[in-house]
UniProtKB/TrEMBL annotation:
Residues 1-58 form the HTH lysR-type domain. The lineage of its organism: Bacteria, Pseudomonadati, Pseudomonadota, Gammaproteobacteria, Pseudomonadales. This is HTH-type transcriptional regulator CynR. One of its GO terms (cellular component) is cytosol. The keyword Chloroplast does not apply. It comes from Pseudomonas fluorescens. The gene is cynR_1.
Length: 296
């Protein structure tokens, strides 16, 4: 099949050796040789040459390699789109957002998308950044809105949309509750309720403490969702940190207050993340709407 021949040719070209390419693909060297020869007969040109240094591309092979990779990507898109249509998935958007971005997603994207495509189905999930990035990487979520990490899976792409900031939350009996805003020094020695170790907000918090040469916060409670953190803060003398867009002041527990943080080391760039390769038409439209909303 042409699809297999293109993949085999590209792998041989990048490996520089039939043996290495065969090992990567899990096929025999004779099968690879026949595949390349089949392509060469079809094109009427020589694509590869054997040399003392291994396999080398001819000029025609170099030119065809670029085109073949484009063809392979487009073929993958076409096949996946056909499967989606056949399986009734063409109108399904699988989207996720962290609490920091959920209000933006629900308010700026979904109402307009539903109006444009009334027959569409939307599968919306909320979670912290690390879980959503895993969901995008394994294909469970097609598009995610979250605080953008400094380093990310090379198979994922991202686009910055807007800047958010963080706020400290405490209950109204906590010593910090009487302040108008807090510095990193004010937070030193406090007991914290926080998210998992690799979650973006916690990474940012620990980085800010380190940059200001302040001992890391004493984390006494770890939770994997925002409602649990807010409940813990409302019931115990703990400090936590949330994005200003994650919760509206009126939606906080009655005894919880939200305070600005005075620190140049804590920032929260919000953006969207998706896996490279095929995207459904509804996901592509969602990206366009999110970009337009961020510019507005």
């Amino acid at each position: 099949m042409l699809e297999d021949d293109l993949v085999y040719f590209s792998t041989v070209a990048s490996a520089g050796s039939l043996a290495r390419a065969a090992e990567r693909l899990g096929v025999s060297q004779p099968a690879l040789t026949k595949s390349v020869q089949r392509l060469e007969r079809r094109l009427g040109v020589k694509l590869l040459l054997r040399s003392s240094r291994g396999i080398e591309l001819t000029d025609a092979g170099t030119a065809f390699l670029v085109r073949s990779r484009t063809i392979s990507r487009e073929l993958e898109v076409a096949l996946q789109e056909a499967r989606d249509v056949a399986g009734g998935q063409a109108g399904l958007l699988r989207i996720g957002a962290t609490p920091a971005a959920a209000n933006f997603a629900l308010g700026s994207l979904l109402p307009r998308l539903i109006k444009e495509r009334p027959a569409a189905r939307i599968n919306f999930v909320s979670g912290f950044s690390d879980a959503l990035l895993d969901s995008v990487a394994n294909g469970e979520v097609e598009l995610a809105l979250l605080p953008l990490p400094e380093r990310m899976d090379p198979n994922l792409d991202m686009l910055h949309l807007l800047e958010d900031d963080y706020r400290v939350v405490v209950n109204d009996q906590h010593p910090l509750a009487s302040l108008q805003s807090v510095s990193m020094g004010d937070l030193a020695g406090c007991q914290w309720a926080g998210s998992s170790k690799h979650e973006f907000a916690r990474v940012q918090l620990e980085r800010a403490f380190a940059l200001e040469a302040i001992a890391l916060p004493n984390l006494v409670l770890e939770a994997n969702n925002l409602p649990a953190l807010l409940l813990a803060v409302s019931r115990m003398p703990l400090v936590s940190m949330v994005n200003s867009h994650a919760v509206l002041p009126e939606s906080l527990p009655a005894n919880v207050v939200m305070l600005p943080i005075r620190s140049e080391h804590i920032r929260c760039p919000i953006g969207m993340v998706w896996r490279r390769g095929y995207m459904s038409s509804i996901a592509l439209r969602a990206k366009e709407l999110l970009q337009a909303a961020a510019r507005a």
